Amino acid sequence: MSSVETIPQSHRASVTSACRLCGAGLRHTFVDLGMSPPCENFLQVDQIDAVEHYFPLHVQVCERCFLVQLKEYMSPKAIFTEYAYFSSYSTSWVAHAKAYCEAIASRCGLVADSLVVELASNDGYLLQHFLPMGIPVLGIEPAANVARAAVERGVPTLVDFFGVRLATALAAEGKQADLIAGNNVLAQVPDLNDFVAGMKILLKPTGVITLEFPHLEKLIAENQFDTIYHEHFSYFSLLTIAEMARRHRLKVIDVEELPTHGGSLRVYLAHGESRHPVSLAVGQLLAREKRHGLADIGTYASFGMKAKRAKRDLLTFLIAAKNEGKTICGYGAPGKGNTLLNYCAIGNDFLDFTVDRNPYKHGRFTPGMHIPIHPVEAIDAAKPDYILILPWNLRDEIMKQMHHVAAWGAKFVVPIPFVTVINSAEFRR
Prior knowledge:
- There is one protein chain.
- β2 and β3 form a beta hairpin.
- It is built from 14 helices and 17 strands.
- The longest helix has 21 residues.
């Protein structure tokens, strides 16, 4: 049987009580989701009887800069040396990346002598779209297995962690960027100040940085507690991003609200001394966040109760369904799904299996709860009564792909913010 074990020295990182951005002491809990294994540690069949290492998911908030943060219980090397997430398996995410590339190339006037650098470039899902435009690119990706997929797409990729060290080396080689892109990477950086200082070094004087990340305002408002896992060290509001930029002599020049990942921000940064004008959208969103209490520590303290209610809500539904003899399977094996499964203790007693489009996960088991992961076609063979959508941010994409399950009357279950059951026949498009 798997069991909780003390954090091994090889996986142990610095566990500190100081804010990783401003250094203030951390005294306030945002949410405590108990103990959980690393969300991307998918197990092979010969591993399921071995000991698994569990780490706390105790999230705190800084009362000075309002950075919501998880202590660095695991080092980035332990998480990202080999990585199970390949961005290209989400059709909507690749389409999102393509639209960004086309828009930003025009906005920044990128041409054949420009350079675009993406931090945490994954399998080349984004940079590949600049290649037909003749715009030079460079990916930086710490996971060698994922970087290989990018190189096979023709995307030049360095296998390394980004920070001041690498930025200084690249700048010394004359490789400064007109555009630095970072999609859903900022949350995965334990040493924020080193990372942001590196971006400033790598950025040309007139260059632009764009960062995308889930918006903390949405996480709180829509109870997205399952987006908390060990590889996400930080959770951001624009208020905190503005403070982060100020500390590194950068400035926020624009911000866009995006529907991705349940509600994200795309912020545009430039050198503080640059002539880039600041959009009105920046001040407007900062003012809205203040109205919604994101500069009030009390707003953060009440979040934990919402997570507990969602847990009770989901378990009540699952228990009732199983008592009625219903069959349930999952769709997807994302990081957020593993946080949800472990926090709610949902194992094979509730879910017969889950499916995923990523072949890397097929034949493996989810960490902690050991739900078997099959190809998507397994749903057609099993014909379950309910399909629990674990990557709920892709619910529309998934329900469109799986609309045919209406033939046997299956229903979709979306767990966040609270349980919603959707009749597949009503969703057919």
